[in-house]
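Below is how a single chain appears once it has passed through the pipeline. First comes the sequence as given, then the structure the pipeline wrote out for it. We keep one example in the README because the format questions we get most often are answered faster by looking than by reading.
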Amino acid sequence: MLARLCGFFSCFGTKFVSVRKTFSMIVASMNLDEIRHEIMLDYKMIVNKMDGLYPRLRREILRSGKKVMQRSLDYQTRQYNKWILRLTWDKKNIGCESIVLYFDSVGVCAAEVYGNRKINLINVYHTHFFQRYRQRTHKENLSQEELVKEFFEKRGQVKDTVIQRPGSGIYLTISVLSEGVAFGQLLPGIHLMKTFLPFHMLKPCQMSVVEQIRNGDATIHISNEMDEMMVRQLRLRGATILPDSEFPKDDVMNFQEPFA
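Resulting structure:
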């Protein structure tokens, strides 16, 4: 059929070209922008899968009589990228934590997509993050994939804040989790999680900041120079946007060099 169409259009001097999107597996040689690009291509398939899965999940919850149900699924896309789908659903809605695993030259990494259908942002958990998480929570007996699943299972509700390093345009992040604190950096479209510290390793001044973040007292501080993607990213995270004049106190700045 395609050959006939090409022959038909050639009569009018028109060249018929077949175009398709190219997908590929996430590999260690990719940079963050390339990884984000491949994840978002893959994620469209995840969204379609969820749309197709929900009618069956809704029938299941109606039969069970439960108000809320949860399940974790392993799913491999056509590009051989392995996803962990953590589903929570009720009679009207379905929520899905979508996490893709990939490997660099050292070990396992994970990326979590969040946002909405128009804007999707990504939390990337670096290899170094999972190395420190394994060491500092004494989970040496778990495989790399089990470690990632364990982390997301126990992570709990994430509460975070962003600190601007003065005059640098660099935005560091503090994320309070159930087992400790994650430290990272905010990049356009990506929140890069770099390392992890359990609560018992924090100094008293740092624990006071953790309590502020837990209580919602620590706010997001950004400069007027931040680009629109960053602002949208912060708003999706539930951030309060404040001007430079309302800069964090000195005790918050104790977190400026946490990447160890």
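Residues 32-64 form the longest helix (33 residues).

See the next section for the split statistics.
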